[in-house]
Write a structure and sequence with these properties.
single chain, alpha+beta, OB fold (Dihydrolipoamide Acetyltransferase, E2P), five-stranded mixed beta sheet, four-stranded antiparallel beta sheet, 11 helices
Length: about 350
């Protein structure tokens, strides 16, 4: 049987060596042994303390330090591979990403319990030391770094959020509600993103919120990322966000939207004026009808007053009455004569 050992210490009559299994052996001192040498020994090379039994010479098999270092490195790599296969690695996955752009620019990765796994500040407004300090904290515990307690300046706080898991509206609302309670200010604008937005923003070295806002304005989809505000209110808040207004694409998108809004406003005004004109025309028609009615009224009165044609008849009636009176007078004279 042979042993692979490493020389630990050299004594006067023997050497102490460690075998692969951790056992410490005493071996016979032969040749030019040095501490750290790795050699192979047989049973007869073990030191028993009896000089007469010791062979005259033993040839040691030396291993260089370079070879020893290589062996150690390979052994360490094998142990890592074995531990990865045997012991399951338990790590917290990224659950959501939240970014804040106000006085500071900070983006954090959160696990399912809203604990910060990683933090980054692309513009350097948060120091590396602070980024390391908030790692492992709950997002509420990093309020100072997120700029939650900063005095209100009238500028919009841009907050982007997105889940790594797609199509989970309930969890999206839960995360947004948590952020609203954390910041609790009307100056905050919350923009909802997607898993793809997270990846693209990281490629562009841009915070999630800035990326979502720029994309939504350029593609005219601002209503899809902000679901609790009117379009006009959102655009007004965008204008109060300094980091956004530094972006040429955002300014051009806002100018384009303003021109379209003015054009729509003018068109609506013209429509209202046209409707008013139609109302005036209707009144004129009514007046015309009414005037015609009034014009027809005197004609009817004139027809009623045309009774002079009956005047001769009335005169005839008067003549008839005179005739009757004369007849009565004649009758009375006849009676008088008879009486006489």
């Amino acid at each position: 049987m042979y042993y692979k050992v490493m020389v630990l210490e050299i004594k006067a009559d023997y050497c102490l060596a460690m075998a692969d299994d951790g056992q410490v052996l005493r071996i016979k001192k032969k040749g030019e042994m040095k501490e750290g040498d790795c050699i192979y020994v047989l049973n007869e090379d073990l030191y028993s303390g009896k000089p007469e039994e010791q062979p005259e010479k033993m040839q040691a098999i030396k291993i260089s330090k370079k070879t020893l270092n290589s062996i150690i490195a390979v052994a360490a790599a094998l142990m890592l591979c074995l531990s990865a296969l045997i012991i399951p690695r338990i790590t917290d996955k990224v659950y959501a990403v939240v970014s804040v752009d106000s006085g500071v620019s900070l983006q954090v990765q959160l696990d399912e319990k809203y604990k910060i796994r990683k933090a980054v500040s692309y513009e350097g407004s948060v120091s590396e030391e602070q980024l390391k300090e908030i790692k492992g904290l709950q997002i509420d515990e990093a309020a100072e770094e997120l700029g939650v307690n900063q005095p209100q300046t009238g500028n919009t706080i841009l907050i982007g959020y997105a889940l790594e898991k797609e199509n989970d509206q309930q969890q999206e609302r839960k995360l947004k509600t948590h952020l609203q309670e954390l910041f609790s200010t009307d100056e905050a604008l919350y923009l909802k993103g997607s898993k793809n937005d997270i990846k693209q923003a990281e490629r562009d070295k841009q915070t999630l919120g800035l990326y979502i806002a720029q994309k939504a304005l350029n593609e005219d989809q601002i209503e899809e990322v902000v679901d609790d505000m009117s379009r006009e209110d959102v655009l007004e808040m965008v204008k109060k966000q300094p980091a956004l207004m530094k972006n040429d694409a955002v300014r051009k998108a806002l100018e384009k939207d303003e021109k379209a809004a003015k054009k729509t406003k003018k068109s609506n005004q013209r429509k209202v004026e046209a409707d008013d004109d139609d109302d005036y025309d209707t009144d004129d028609d009514d007046d015309a009808v009414e005037s015609k009615s009034k014009a027809a009224a005197p004609t009817s009165k004139t027809d009623k007053s045309k009774k002079p044609t009956a005047a001769p008849q009335k005169n005839n009636d008067d003549d008839g009455n005179d005739n009757d009176t004369d007849a009565d007078d004649e009758a009375e004279s006849d009676d008088e004569e008879e009486n006489d």
